[in-house]
Amino acid sequence: MSITYKQVAAGVALAFGGLVSAHAATITISCGNNAADVEFCGKFAEEWGKKNGHTVKMYTPPASTTDNLALLRQQFAAKSSDLDVIMIDVVWPGVIKDHLVDLKKYSKGVEKDHFPAIVANNTVDGKLLGMPWFTDAGLLFYRKDLLAKNGLKVPQTWDELAAAAKKIQDGERATDKDFQGFVFQAKAYEGLTCDALEWVYSYGGGTIVDDKGNITINNPQAAKALDAAASWIGTIAPQGVMNYGEEDARGVWQNGKAAFMRNWPYAWSLGQAADSPIKDKIGVAALPAGTGPGAKKAATLGGWQLAVNKYSKNVDAAASLALYMTSADIQKKRAVGGSYNPTIPALYKDGDIAKANPFMVELLDVFTNAAARPATATGLKYPEVSNAFWDAAHDVLEKKSTGAEAVKKLEGKLKQIKKAKW
Ligand code: GLC
């Protein structure tokens, strides 16, 4: 009996398969914070699994970063090995630092290709706790067609935005009673911290706590910013915005039911999808400035990293997956296909990325100058600080207190959280 080439190949494959499976691991990756990205993230992770003989399982974390962190902290407390690679928010490294693997041993210096500020953010006590995956900044999405129809320019201040939103809303409501002027994130969670920091910082009211750890929120400009936002609720924004996260705002916007939206870059690619009712009608700009002393345009810095769970049973394979997913090749694919901003400066010169996402190049300074939440200064206490801030902002939006009352009370609360030091 002669042995065919096919049989030899099959035998080799079997032996090889056996070898591989001895080392084959099942790696669970937590990623995707909107429906589209779950699929997108999974696709590349599975690609890595096939290439390396590992099985990849997807875990979809809660869409709210606040709920996501709460669940993770429970898992860490139980030293759970369920997750291997974990998508972590830019404000988390100082909070969950004790539960993550130092990736320096695996990265072999490749982090030097990424924005140094993000690498610094992810480095705690000399340990590289997350590979930068994508960066975010709050953006103003507007309807080009509706601005043109009303003879309006892109608003440069929040007052201009409120006036433009009102004008467009009044006109559109003649035929669509559900039409909204402006949608954003005002649910009591981390997303509101991001939006409200933009209002406060754009009015020259600082960043809640400064770089040195001083509590700065009790100032007239911060109060004015919160009062301005409160005036939008029920006028240019629906009452329901008080319960909106990113995806709620995007739902209204992408249905063609809003003139303006504050959201992160990912909303661009979804809005431009073939089946999107607002395809080719979307403009993207920097968020408006406040008014008064110190006013400027502002965006909150967001973004996600891939980290490895210290309690994982497969740290080496998990680190390899984290590095694969954060590589220039995958970042480019995610930028072109999902408008996720790369964390590698060189990619901002890539023609394909620029073509798919003109705003990434046009608004590069928005991304590089975005205001950081005070996570580094407040370390482990950041979640409490943020929670106190979003509660204060929510109270003002609900008209339970004025901006001035809220920032005074918040200062007291932050002093209690800080005690002697952060
Ligand atoms: C985005 C940002 C993240 C932020 C979150 C708030 O996911 O990337 O940094 O914390 O929104 O909802």
UniProtKB/TrEMBL annotation:
GO terms for biological process: maltodextrin transmembrane transport; maltose transport. It comes from the Bacteria. The keyword ATP-binding does not apply. It holds the Pfam family SBP_bac_1. PROSITE patterns: PROKAR_LIPOPROTEIN. Residues 1-24 form the signal peptide. One of its GO terms (cellular component) is ATP-binding cassette (ABC) transporter complex, substrate-binding subunit-containing. Transmembrane segments: none annotated. GO terms for molecular function: maltose binding. Keywords: Signal, Transport. Gene3D superfamilies: Periplasmic binding protein-like II. The keyword Hydrolase does not apply. PANTHER family: MALTOSE-BINDING PERIPLASMIC PROTEIN (PTHR30061), MALTOSE_MALTODEXTRIN-BINDING PERIPLASMIC PROTEIN (PTHR30061:SF50). Belongs to the bacterial solute-binding protein 1 family. This is Trehalose/maltose transport system substrate-binding protein. It comes from Sphaerotilus montanus.
